Amino acid sequence: MSLKGKAAAIGIGELKPVKEPGDLTALGLMAQVAAEAIADAGLEKKDIDGFLVGVPFSDPGMIYPASAAEVLGLNVRMLNQVDIGGASPAGMIWRAAAAIDAGMCSAVLCIVADLNKVGDQRPPVISVQREFEAPYGNIGANCGYAMIAHRHMHEYGTTARQMAKVAVDQRTSALKNPLATFNDKALTIDDVLNSRMIVDPLHLYEIVSPVSGGAAIIVASPEVAKRAKNPPIWLLGAGEYANHSTITYAPSITESPIKPAAAAAFKMAGLQPKDMDIACPYDCYTITVIVTLEDAGFCKKGEGGPFVMEHDLTYAGDFPCNTHGGQLSFGQPGLAGGMSHVTEAIRQLMGRGGERQVKGAALGYVNGNGGIMSEQSSLVLERRS
Amino acid sequence: MSEYYKPLPKPSPTSRPFWEAARRHELTLQRCGACRAYIYYPRDRCPKCFSDKLAWERVSGRGKVYSFTVVRRASSRAFSDAPYVLAIVELAEGPRMTSNIMAAPEDVRVEMPVEVCFDDVTPDHTLVKFKPA
Q: What are phi and psi of A143, to 5 degrees?
């Protein structure tokens, strides 16, 4: 059993995020990106017969998929919500492929959108987290990633400059991405290190910025892909893993569940990290990229810091990584932040990278990461020549 | 006494003995009668072997800082008194706990030995915290 080559991404829709949501609604953003993705694929709305959706923090609800599908006017043979945090978009791709391979449907709309509602309004967490985390101030994602970074520095000698380099290179690529939130000014390592310390050792420019926006991807069967407008981007491999929710209870905080997720994805694809032309690792923080590159096998454990210093991570570099700027420069419109890695990989492999196109990109690695290095969903994608 | 406005633990039937011990200034953990693992946070079954033979034991209160951060700007307004030191403490008995280190931020290091202390934040609530050993 394998999903290798069983389905392809054939269309994308993605909005330029905005800082202030104004009169926008999450459902309205979904309608926009759905229309854009369906048109991009060269399909019509009636062709969509599968629906995977992430529940927005700004407008949550029970029995969400049918409600959102009703708003969009969809009639579908398969519907579900995917609730694995920032890994949800990558997780949607293989779930869509699995449903297609099982004969349940033939064209799946995968969609996420959210508003940046400023304030103390945080998504609810389950009882044990309210009981054993919140009283000590372990609230939100910043704290956990800061503790990962501190431990990584302690175990492997990773430095603040190495972590900052990730934000710098990604910003260089973002300057060529009209959709990126932060695309008007290059960054230096010193700029990053001189930005305000928020949670030691992470500075402001190492932390994603919440914004409002949305994105959608159409995943289709080989038959539907034949009539797509774009070159189909085939799913070659997928792997998923989780071994904790709160980072305190992870077996290791520096070696993540990305390791088994990526290994499974590469095994299914029959490929190795070195075969990839581009990498799109989820980047809620700079340290996330370093840990991902290590655990996905692009470098040895503990060598992620030196690796990002020795390689040019920009679209023009020897290791093109998050060529859309990553979430750090693109912004994080809720779960659509995690879809930006998937849309960018698809865009690059389709040859639609514009000024930041990586020449000859045919194979890409994507990792989606949820919570505090918790849910991991890795994909290997291919454009066939 | 000023009003305490940070989140407080609401004990469940499963965890109540842990918080009652904390009010007596004792650190207790569940221990699995089958696989002998110490367990934190409290469970109804052992997360390692799924046995339901769990018993409470008073433990040493000694541990080390597995990792930490100094939260300078908190994600929640309840912690607007930042900075504070948030840490993962690895107990001598094995389990890791989320807690606070009651020390100046500049004095905290990864792997630093710590010992338990108890913060009676309200007449009814005691939080389990740690200080340099």
A: -60, -45
